[in-house]
UniProtKB/TrEMBL annotation:
<dbReference type="InterPro" id="IPR051276">
    <property type="entry name" value="Saccharopine_DH-like_oxidrdct"/>
</dbReference>
<dbReference type="InterPro" id="IPR005097">
    <property type="entry name" value="Sacchrp_dh_NADP-bd"/>
</dbReference>
<dbReference type="InterPro" id="IPR036291">
    <property type="entry name" value="NAD(P)-bd_dom_sf"/>
</dbReference>
<dbReference type="Pfam" id="PF03435">
    <property type="entry name" value="Sacchrp_dh_NADP"/>
</dbReference>
<dbReference type="GO" id="GO:0005739">
    <property type="term" value="C:mitochondrion"/>
</dbReference>
<dbReference type="GO" id="GO:0009247">
    <property type="term" value="P:glycolipid biosynthetic process"/>
</dbReference>
<dbReference type="GO" id="GO:0005886">
    <property type="term" value="C:plasma membrane"/>
</dbReference>
<protein>
    <recommendedName>
        <fullName>Saccharopine dehydrogenase NADP binding domain-containing protein</fullName>
    </recommendedName>
</protein>
<dbReference type="GO" id="GO:0005811">
    <property type="term" value="C:lipid droplet"/>
</dbReference>
<comment type="similarity">
    <text>Belongs to the saccharopine dehydrogenase family.</text>
</comment>
<feature type="domain" description="Saccharopine dehydrogenase NADP binding">
    <location>
        <begin position="40"/>
        <end position="184"/>
    </location>
</feature>
Amino acid sequence: RFLIPQPPPGVGRAPADNLDSGYVVKDADIIPRPKRKYDIVMLGATGFTGKLTVRHLVKTYGFDGKKGEPVRWAIAGRSQSKLDQVKRDVIEEFASAGDDKQKLFDAIDTILVDTTVPAMLPNLVRDAKAIVTTAGPFHLYSVHVVEFCAKFGTHYVDISAELDWFRNMMVTWGPTAKKTGARIVTLCGCDSVPWDLSTMRMQDEIKKASNGQEELVSIQCFNEVNGGISGGTLYTCSLLIDGSCQKPPKVDPFLKTAKGTPSMAQTTLDPLAFIPSPIAFPWKPNAPALSMWRSPFLMTAVNCDAVKWSQALRGATQPLVYSDFMTTTSMPTALTGGIGIMMAAVALLNPITKYLLETFVFPKPGEGPDKKTMIEKSFLSVYSKGVGSKGSEYESVIFFKGDAGYIETARMVSEAGLSMALQEDELPAHGGGFYTPAIAMGDVYLKRLMATGTHYALKKTK
C-alpha cells in the first residue's frame, strides 16, 4: 500500500481554471516507462464507474494481475476507507472458496491522492505507465492529472465527454506531451469509442481496397441501446448544459492534422440526425414502410466531434458527412425520445427545475443502475453504413453485451489504458500528443475489446 504524502506547508489546492500548477519536472525526475512499477493506475476507483473498472480488472486479470496476460495495476482515490471497501467488494464477488482473503486484499495496491492538490500528483503518475481515470467532472478533477501526465511522460485515458475542457488542455499541454512521449486520450468510454472505431475501420478498409484511391465520404450509425444512467453522468451533463464547464479556445485544435496544419477534410453532422423521421431498414430491404424511425441520440454531437478530430489527425482529404441516431419501431417512441431530450435540457437551464431534478429525481453521484440489470438486460448495438468517394458501400456492426455507459465503459477505458501500457510499440500513433481512441490505438485497441467481449464485423456490400 502506498500513501502519497500531504503537500508541504503553503501548498494548497489549485483552482480548477488554473491549467498550470507551476510545478517544475526535471529530466532526472522522469522514470523511463519500461522501468515503472505499474502498467496502469486506476484513478477514481471509489466512484460508480470506477468500481466497475476495478471489477473488470479483477475478473479479467486477477487480483495480482497474473491471470492470463500479466498486468501490474493499482487503484487510487481520495479516501483510504472507501478504497479498502472497493477491495473488499471485489473479493466478496470473485474470491474462490479456500482463497486467502487477506492475501487478495494486500495484492491490490492503493494510492491516496487528491487531484486538486498539485503537490500530491507526482507520486501518482511517476511510477505508472498509464493513468486510467473515471473521476469526473474532469474539468474539476483531471486538470492537474493531465498536466502531470504530460510533464512526466505518463499515458492518460479518461471517459470524459467534456470536449471544450479537453481542447484547452490540448492547447496548453500538447507541446509538453509531444516532448515527453505522453499519449493523452479522452473519449475512451461509450462516448465515443463505438462510433470512432466504426468510422476508423470503415475508412481504413475503403482506402485499403482501393489502394488509397477512395475515402469514406458518408457514414450513418444506427444505434440500438438499452441501459441506465448514473448520478455522476447526470451531474456532468448538468454542468455542460448550464455552461459551468470551461469555454473553448479561440482556435479549435480538433481541426488540425497531426503536423499541426489545418485539416483539408471537413466533417459535418447531418442535421436529419436530430429530426424524428421514418427511415429504411438497411439490413431489411423488404421491411414494410414506416417500420423503423430515427430519434435523436444524446451524444451525437460529441461523437461527431470525435470523428471530426480523427479525420483531421489521419490526414483525410475528402469531406465526411456523419450521423448517428437512435432507432425505434414506432413513431410515438421516436417523438417521445426527441421531445424528452429537449425538455430535459430546458429543465436543466432553469435553476429551480434543475434543483428539483438534482435533489428529488436524479440519482446522486456514485449511484446508478443495479449490477444485475447492467449485466443481463443491457446492451449497445451500432450498425453503420458507409459510402466511399467512388461509390463503394460498406456495412459494419459493433455490439457490446452489457450497459454501454457503465459495465462496458469500464471495460473500454481499462483496455485503452492497457493498450498503451502493454502494447506501446504496436500503436499507430507514434510519439506523444493528444489523440482520439481510434488514432491513438486503432486496431490494437479494437482487438483487445474483441478479446474481452465485444463483437465486430465489417463487409463490403457494393
